[in-house]
Amino acid sequence: MNNRNHEGSRHGGPPVVSCENVSFSYLDSGRPALGEISLEVRAGEYVGVVGPNGGGKSTLLRLMNGLLRADSGDVRVAGFDPAAEPFEVRKRVGMLFQNPENGLVAPFVEDDIAFGLENVGVSREEMRERVRKAVRAVGLDGYEQREPHTLSGGEKQRVALAGLLALDPEVLLLDEPTSMLDAAGRRGVLERLEALRGARTVVHVTHHLDELLDADRVLVLGAGRLVADVSPERLVSDPDLLRDNRLVLPTALRLAAELGLGPAKLRTPEDLAEAIVEKSGARAR
Ligand SMILES: Nc1ncnc2c1ncn2[C@@H]1O[C@H](COP(=O)(O)OP(=O)(O)O)[C@@H](O)[C@H]1O
Ligand SMILES: [Mg+2]
């Protein structure tokens, strides 16, 4: 993993997700989709995963929720081997995919959110309560009776997220959940994910570095290898790491770098504006 070692995290305790020397190849493919991956995610951590297309990000999540079985090495999620005990793992892990159309199955939003609960054996009353809480958690109060096909992409993705939250998962695996949404839809989903920070363990795959500036750590996967496991500040300050992995800085950070403002501290356009005003004010004086 080069010299970019795993940095200390403020989250203690045993790992909730771990991979040890995990390798995986698809049957009809020459090179391994993942080779010798080792990583740990601790309870309450928000961990981003980035890297070029084909780097192995989706494969990694599929191994974590038991859709695929590693050729070698150990995968553990909430104490279980996902491939050996997929039902135990799926009780504890929720997965959100790119396409918000795929997850929605019921005629009304509230049925959709309750759908997963039907198989868990909770009482009607508890089901209603859990759906109510999940609706609130994703900011969809008043949408309970809407038909999913009448919702925007971002709203659909929030319905899918509510369906996961109703099941109260320990771990959320998010595979590019905003990539098919417009800007407003993205913002809506990201705000909901932000609100979950700390309460759940999250592994979030994305192509947008700006979605991960507050993450505890970011894993960089390139050509099936774990290239780096770093803080977001480290990542955005490492031009080689960014370029080698086809990662593009958010506009505010690029501008900040051009202006010599040091990218690591500046997260939003508002931060940048403030820094520019400060700098030019200082010069005028
Ligand atoms: N179902 C599949 N069958 C064969 N090869 C696959 C399949 N899914 C992914 N791959 C290959 O595995 C590698 C990793 O893919 P993937 O995990 O989807 O990467 P990412 O999500 O980072 O874009 C790529 O080379 C890809 O072509
Ligand atoms: Mg993918």
Overview of this structure, please?
With 285 residues, the chain is an alpha/beta fold. The chain is 36% helix and 20% strand. It contains eleven helices and nine strands. The strands form two sheets. A six-stranded mixed β-sheet has the order 5-6-7-3-8-9, with helices on both faces. Helix 5 (124-137) crosses helix 6 (153-166) and helix 6 runs parallel beside helix 7. The radius of gyration is 20 Å and the shape is globular. It starts with 14 loop residues before the first strand and ends with a helix. Adenosine-5'-diphosphate is lined by residues 26, 28-29, 33, 51, 53-59. The site of adenosine-5'-diphosphate has 12 residues, from helix 1.
Main sheet: strands, sense, barrel: 6 strands, mixed
Distance between the termini: 47 Å
Radius of gyration: 20 Å
* Total DSSP E strands: 9
Q: List bound small molecules.
A: adenosine-5'-diphosphate, magnesium ion
- Please identify the top-level CATH class of the largest domain: Alpha Beta
Say what the CATH topology of the largest domain is: Rossmann fold
Say what oligomer this is.
single chain
Strand content: 15-25%
Q: At CATH's second level, what is the architecture of the largest domain?
A: 3-Layer(aba) Sandwich
CATH superfamily of the largest domain: P-loop containing nucleotide triphosphate hydrolases
* Tally of helical segments: 11
Category from helices, strands and their pairing = alpha/beta
The level of helicity is 25-40%
Number of separate domains:
2
Strand order of the largest sheet: 5-6-7-3-8-9
Query: SSE order in H/E notation?
Result: EEEHEHEHHHHEHEEEHHHH
Show unreliable segments.
1-8
